[in-house]
């Protein structure tokens, strides 16, 4: 018996990289999978059906069930068609894994409006569209089932870029930060349906980071343990998709190599109060000493 036997999953961006290994992992644990991928290049150009078809073939070869979907997840009707595909082909939808996206590197002072809009569209709006149609489906199913817990799972993919504000990818960092907030809101809504929503922050070698300044960090070693192999991320996705994660919702989790992290929600690190309105001088007397030994920015991945 697999942990996901009888479950139906949609995985976006599942033709390559993280999405592909996640789809294979879910299928290995028994889920039927709708493999969505538009087949775009790293910077969002063109289209190709081969990546999605290849993942479907690999799942079927390992004894699983899968179908391909080639729609644009940030387009309203096509994203709805994706969710309908899961229901029409496999009878339900239990798991949504959002992974699709591309990147267009640029310093903010040189970034074009199109570069900003297109990256935010595919990541943030793309997550919203699939989530919206999934949650609407679950709401109706919940009502039909007499308001019994459904056990649905949403797993959204953010990035460390959202946590550190990565240099040269302000559009991507902003979109990925938005995904965290969107997921936390969804987790609150889904609670009444007995469903969960969590954020995955993978650290893995993908097309996203192999073309940018962080590429040397993620290079595959000639020998020994491959710390940043995308396959290391997939088991956490399967766990979050399973009944084992029943009490896990509204969390930000990270995995790479042999490391597993759960991030604490934002918390206060400084507090002060007065019996009157704050003046410039009073603020300076409190915050000046507090920030005097702190660096202006946090660099790197040791968050």
Strand and helix map with partners:
Layout: E1 8-12, H1 17-28, E2 32-36, H2 50-61, E3 66-69, H3 76-90, E4 95-98, H4 113-144, E5 153-157, H5 161-164, H6 170-190, E6 196-202, H7 207-210, H8 215-218, H9 234-241, E7 252-256, E8 259-263, H10 280-291
Parallel strand pairs: 1-2, 1-4, 2-3, 4-5, 5-6, 6-7
Antiparallel strand pairs: 7-8
Helix pairs in contact: 1-2, 1-9, 3-4, 4-6
- CATH fold name: Rossmann fold
The CATH level-2 architecture is identified as 3-Layer(aba) Sandwich
Please give the share of residues in helix: 40-55%
Strand content: 5-15%
What is the gist of this entry?
The chain has helices spanning 17-28, 50-61, 76-90, 113-144, 161-164, 170-190, 207-210, 215-218, 234-241, 280-291; strands at 8-12, 32-36, 66-69, 95-98, 153-157, 196-202, 252-256, 259-263. It is of the alpha/beta class and 303 residues long.
Description of the molecule:
- This protein is α/β, with parallel strands linked by helices and 303 residues long.
- The chain has one domain (8-263): NAD(P)-binding Rossmann-like Domain (Rossmann fold).
- It contains 10 helices and 8 strands.
- It has helices spanning 17-28, 50-61, 76-90, 113-144, 161-164, 170-190, 207-210, 215-218, 234-241, 280-291; strands at 8-12, 32-36, 66-69, 95-98, 153-157, 196-202, 252-256, 259-263.
- The protein has an 8-stranded mixed β-sheet, with helices on both faces.
- α1 packs across α9 (234-241) and α3 packs parallel to α4.
- The longest helix has 32 residues, at 113-144.
- The protein is globular.
- It starts with 7 loop residues before the first strand and ends in a 12-residue tail after the last helix.
- The model is unreliable at 299-303 (pLDDT under 50).
């Amino acid at each position: 018996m697999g942990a996901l036997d009888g479950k139906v999953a949609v995985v976006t961006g599942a033709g390559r990289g993280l999405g592909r290994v996640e789809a294979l992992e879910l299928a290995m644990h028994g889920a039927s999978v709708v493999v969505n991928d538009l087949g775009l290049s790293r910077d969002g150009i063109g289209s190709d059906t081969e990546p999605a078809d290849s993942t479907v073939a690999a799942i079927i070869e390992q004894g699983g069930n899968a179908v391909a979907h080639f729609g644009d997840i940030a387009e309203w009707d096509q994203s709805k068609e994706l969710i309908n595909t899961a229901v029409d082909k496999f009878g339900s939808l239990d798991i949504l894994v959002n992974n699709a996206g591309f990147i267009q590197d640029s310093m903010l002072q040189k970034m074009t409006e199109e570069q900003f809009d297109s990256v935010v569209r595919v990541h943030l709006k793309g997550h919203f569209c699939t989530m919206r149609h999934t949650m609407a489906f679950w709401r109706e199913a919940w009502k039909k089932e007499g308001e019994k817990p459904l056990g649905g799972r949403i797993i959204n993919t953010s990035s460390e870029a959202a946590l550190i504000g990565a240099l040269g990818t302000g559009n991507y960092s902003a979109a990925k930060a938005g995904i965290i907030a969107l997921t936390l809101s969804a987790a609150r809504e889904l609670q009444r349906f007995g469903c969960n929503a969590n954020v995955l922050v993978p650290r893995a070698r993908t097309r996203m980071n192999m073309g940018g300044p962080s590429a040397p960090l993620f290079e595959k070693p000639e020998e020994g343990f491959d710390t940043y192999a995308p396959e290391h991320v997939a088991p956490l996705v399967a766990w979050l998709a399973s009944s084992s994660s029943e009490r896990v919702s509204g969390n930000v989790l990270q995995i790479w190599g042999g490391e597993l992290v759960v991030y604490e929600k934002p918390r206060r690190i400084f507090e002060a109060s007065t019996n009157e309105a704050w003046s410039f001088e009073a603020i300076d007397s409190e915050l000046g000493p507090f920030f005097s030994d702190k660096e202006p920015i946090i660099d790197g991945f040791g968050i």
